[in-house]
Design a protein that fits this description.
This protein is mostly beta strands. About 5% of the residues lie in helices and about 50% in strands. Among the domains are: about 80 residues, Carboxypeptidase-like, regulatory domain (Immunoglobulin-like, Sandwich); about 200 residues, no CATH class. The protein is built from 8 helices and 51 strands. The strands form 10 sheets. The chain has a 22-stranded antiparallel beta barrel. It has a 5-stranded mixed beta sheet with strand order 11-16-17-14-15. A hairpin with a 2-residue loop joins strand 23 and strand 24. The longest helix has 19 residues.
Length: about 1000
């Protein structure tokens, strides 16, 4: 029996013994929850205050609680959009009854939000927390749940730079904070740490709570430097079974195209300028972008069933999503199935929760090189030609001798890439109430991800690697994550004092890359693609497993605790501590400690505020904490041998050479982020207007970075080490208002604003004499641009600093572009020495981001629209640079912008000529819906239909396809030709509840 299994069995056994020896006299409580108009309130949380005894109201507003302790109790009811209601009641043996009437309000003070290893009322939290519910989620074709939050939370940047249905999003909270490790936040889904976001269908989400500052995230220690996003899904509720269906069908089209010349325009341009096009590339009218694109049809269906009794509750759902890409042969199909059972036992002192979720994603991916080809291929060229010389290419027109100039339609149809991702998560949670206010929780989870990719280049592919022989790759990996966590939660409320305490232990074992990467060539037929590599005939010396990665195993053991104190709902204090030990790091730095402290003062509860009516809530808060980032592969701290280039003769045979591929570093450790957060939360005019204003300072030290090192004494020329630093500081503002409301009409609005300033600190390592003063990033691989980069990582400057030649104009007489060097000398392109004559010319990170949401309701009609944007960033438009070769218009297409610019010198260096303003304002989505009255329909509780538009318009000065380019990595903000166009979608949807 493994240690992991032993710990689980021991804990569950001990839990069962305790639960059978702990009991108390209990009774039942039932009633109905309505709003001020007497209408039932669905999904209201009913809880015995101070106890883990709770339920939710059904569609008819009825609720039922069993095992309520006899005696004086306070029953609280909380529902989204309504004020908190609490009533005292004497519980007698047998059945008891209590009804509630909730008052609608915009106040979210009593909203319950998820925090690390527990829950809390929002008004009792001193850290930086944002909560988003289904009403605020983005509408439209959503391929991943994180896209529901795009633009909704101040400081949270979710960037999906293309319309590729198989592509994910880049998620960043409060700016970039790493040079090497991942900057993605930690996801906690229904209490399971690190669960895959792919396991959740958007329609199953109840709320998403975002923890921004270190005082909130420190409880997760070495994994939480980039913030934590809690995802809460639908659970079973006591009452009648509720069957719900939601679905939509959508049509998607390209929102913008590359602005290149048409066939007629291209013919006119080359004739006017005396250029000669090869006869074989003339006489046709081909719109290459039209040839590879289409209007895509997408649809989504979600079916869920919830119900049960007080003792046993269940939830089940299945989601099917089919996203047909706007590029031919690209698509994604996803099925997510979830099943949950909650069982109460031993007079409700024990609550068992079993959850199983499985996600299966299948997608067809396209080679992004087709987009560059569709822009550059001469529009007077044919797609196919019936000529023997093109028979080896499958009849597709190609230009021999130009290996970087490929027919995009041929590339699209002659390269197959199918991806499959199967993720399974099973978890069991046991909550045992040991005594009043004291709960012991045990969680065990098993997550397995199976990834399979099949890639095949046809024997007719123009690429020399595949032409005549075919080329196949197969990747098949399995990743397994096992977690066991055990923790105690204690809550004591007495008079004006409230004490909360939590302590726990965590064990996480991870095994990744359990599989292989194989390649093969020499196929006699394309019929089976890459599904049978054994059909290939490998050339001599070809190693089909040369790039197979090694298995990555790691172990994380943690001890953690938190204590909080609230006095009279006025003064709030909280502190946490976590001790992490990770096998990923060097023997000298396996363990680290992360802590936090926060405090809040609810000024509105003071006596001197009682007579005023302006503020219904006013809270000052401050917090400081540390958290870490261990998002690197295991074994980076040890000496690793592996295959090297070349072979040597041994005993008359040539054998592969082996050597050191990685240096050891016993001092390797995690990155540490410390953050100070201060802010003010407020509500005015009884919740009609409210919001928060926050300021933060975030410093990350011991950044992981790969340094060039001398060999010898090192056995390899690269070393991963700590030492660099980076800071982020900024302001975030979130506002919400009930502009107008009566019994027939309401208008609610909310807005957010975020300003972040990023700065790279030292790039020196913690190892003597090893460091760099700067590093060039953002390679631009255009023809003739050998070694050209557009970005620099430089102390004192932010990530995404553009370091290029300073373009000052074009001399029409000499037909040469002019540049200004750092020494003040005016030179021409051929006189520039890169990067010595380059200068800092702009920044990729925006000065601020913003979002504005508006919701209207008139009787049964509802309308919502959402605007978002960024301001003050630059984009290096390498696509425009590549399409500005006017002198080469006889062999490649050019852009209309380049024709208008009229510069005939071929650009060969990265310069500010191609830096553009990336600011934009986008109407992200607009939705109009109608809710039918169903009170006279026996089995139908709710019915709503809606139409929605997504990415309806964008206001920007950027001349490229879309200003929302990738902001990830060390060289963000580069539009480098290989893009998948953004989409504009219109959909029709329906929501039904039975």
């Amino acid at each position: 029996m493994s240690k992991f299994t032993f710990r689980v069995v021991w804990s569950i056994g001990f839990l069962m013994v305790l639960c059978m020896t702990t009991f108390a006299q209990t009774a039942s409580l039932s009633g109905r929850i309505t709003d001020q108009n007497g209408q039932p309130v669905l999904g209201a949380t009913v809880q015995v205050k101070g106890l883990q005894v709770a339920t939710a109201s059904g569609a008819d507003g009825n609720y039922s609680l069993s095992n309520v302790p006899v005696g004086n109790q306070v029953i609280s009811v909380n529902a989204m959009g309504y004020g908190l209601d609490e009533q005292s009641i004497v519980i007698n043996a047998g059945e008891n009854s209590l009804n509630f009437s909730l008052i609608e309000t915009s106040s979210d003070l009593d909203e319950i939000v998820v925090i690390g290893y527990g829950i809390a009322k929002k008004k009792q939290i001193a850290g930086s927390v944002a909560s988003v519910g289904p009403k605020e989620f983005n509408k439209g074709v959503v391929s991943s749940p994180d896209q529901l939050l795009t633009g909704k939370v101040a400081g949270l940047t979710i960037n999906r730079s293309s319309g590729d249905p198989t592509a994910g999003s880049t998620v960043q909270l409060r700016g970039p904070s790493s040079l090497t490790a991942s900057s993605s936040p930690l996801y906690v889904i229904d209490g399971i740490v690190g669960a895959s976001i792919d396991l959740v269908a958007p329609d199953d989400i109840v709320s998403m709570d975002i923890m921004k500052d270190a005082s909130s995230t420190a409880i997760y220690g070495s994994r939480a430097a980039n913030g934590v996003i809690f995802v809460t899904t639908k659970r079973g509720k006591a009452g009648k079974p509720v069957l719900a269906y939601s679905g939509y069908a959508a049509s998607e089209s390209i929102s913008n195209r590359v602005n290149v010349l048409s066939a007629d325009e291209h013919k006119q341009f080359v004739e006017e300028h005396g250029l000669t096009v090869s006869p074989v590339e003339t006489g046709h009218n081909t719109d290459w972008q039209d040839e590879i694109t289409r209007s895509g049809i997408s649809h989504n269906h979600n079916l869920s069933l919830t119900g049960g009794s007080e003792g046993t509750r269940y939830n089940a759902s299945i989601n099917y999503f089919n996203n047909q890409g706007i590029v031919k042969r690209s698509n994604q199909e996803r099925i997510v199935a979830r099943l949950g059972v909650d069982q109460n036992a031993f007079d409700d002192r024990l609550k068992l929760s079993l959850n199983v979720a499985n996600s299966l994603k299948k997608g067809s991916h396209v080679d992004y090189g087709i987009f560059n080809g569709a822009a550059r291929f001469v529009p007077t060229s044919p797609v196919m030609l019936e000529d023997e010389q093109y028979a080896p290419y499958g009849g597709y027109f190609q230009v021999p001798g130009r290996t970087s100039y490929l027919n995009p339609v041929a590339m699209l149809n002659q390269r197959d890439e199918n991806r499959e991702n199967n993720t399974l998560l099973a978890s069991l949670k046991a909550d045992l109430t040991l005594t009043k206010g004291l709960t012991w929780s045990n969680v065990v989870s098993y997550q397995r991800n199976q990834y399979d990719k099949v890639y095949y280049m046809h024997r007719t592919d123009f690429d020399s690697k595949a032409l005549g022989v075919g080329y196949a790759e197969r990747d098949n990996y399995k990743n397994i994550d096992q977690i066991f966590e055990s923790y105690l939660n204690y809550n004591l409320t007495k008079d004006v004092h409230n004490i909360e305490a939590m302590a726990g232990y965590s064990y996480q074992k991870t095994k990744n890359n359990d599989g292989l990467h194989a390649r093969s060539t020499g196929f006699l037929s394309d019929d089976l693609g890459g599904n049978n590599l054994n059909l290939g005939t490998l050339p001599t010396g070809y190693n089909p497993y040369a790039d197979t990665p090694y298995i990555l195993e790691s172990l994380l053991i943690s001890y953690f605790g938190r204590v909080g104190y609230t006095f009279d709902d006025k003064y709030i204090l909280s502190a946490s501590l976590r001790r992490d030990g990770s096998s990923k790091f060097g023997s000298n730095n396996r363990w680290a400690t992360f802590g936090s402290v926060s405090a809040a003062w609810r000024i509105s509860e003071e006596e001197f505020m009682k007579d005023q009516e302006l503020f219904s809530d006013l809270k000052l808060k401050a917090g400081y904490g540390t958290s870490g980032n261990q998002n690197i592969d295991p074994y980076r701290q040890i000496l690793i041998f592996g295959p090297r280039d070349g072979q040597f003769l041994y005993n008359g045979e040539w054998v592969n050479a082996y050597g050191v591929n990685q240096n050891e570093n016993p001092d390797l450790k995690w990155e540490t982020t410390s953050m100070l957060n201060v802010g003010i939360d407020f509500e005015m005019w009884k919740g009609r207007f409210g919001g928060s204003i926050e300021y933060y300072q975030k410093e990350t030290k011991d950044l992981l970075y790969e340094y060039d090192v001398p060999s010898p004494p090192y056995q390899f020329n690269r070393l991963l080490a700590n030492g660099a630093s980076m800071t982020n500081k900024g302001v975030e503002i979130s506002l919400n208002a009930v502009v107008y409301r009566n019994e027939n009409f309401s208008y609610n609005t909310s807005a957010n604003f975020a300003r972040n300033i990023n700065e790279v600190g030292s790039l020196e390592s913690n190892i003597e004499n090893i460091g760099v003063s700067q590093r060039y990033e953002g390679g631009i691989g255009l023809e003739g641009w050998t070694g050209q980069t557009a970005s620099i990582v430089l102390p004192g400057q932010p990530i995404g600093t553009f370091f290029v030649a300073n373009y000052i104009g074009y001399d029409q007489a000499t037909q040469k572009t002019k540049y200004l060097t750092p020494a003040g000398e005016v030179v021409t392109q051929d006189q520039i020495s890169a990067p010595d004559d380059y200068m800092i010319m702009g920044h990729a990170l925006p000065k601020f981001t913003y979002g504005w949401n508006n919701s209207f309701q008139y009787k049964s009609w509802d309308f919502n629209f959402f605007l978002r944007g960024v301001y003050g960033n630059q984009i290096f438009n390498a696509t425009r640079a590549d399409l500005s070769r006017l002198q080469q218009a006889n062999v490649t297409n050019i852009s209309k912008d380049a024709v208008e610019e009229g510069i005939f010198e071929t650009p060969l260096i990265a310069s500010s000529r191609f830096l553009e303003d990336g600011s934009f304002l986008r109407l992200d989505n607009a939705t109009l819906g109608y809710t039918f009255k169903t009170d006279k329909i026996k089995y139908l509780n709710n019915a709503r239909v809606y139409v929605s538009g997504q990415n309806l318009f964008t206001i920007t000065n950027y001349t490229g396809v879309d200003p929302e380019v990738s902001l990830s990595g060390l060289a963000p903000g580069i539009d480098n030709r290989n893009y998948y166009p953004k989409t504009r979608s219109f959909l029709l949807g329906v929501n039904l509840t039975f």
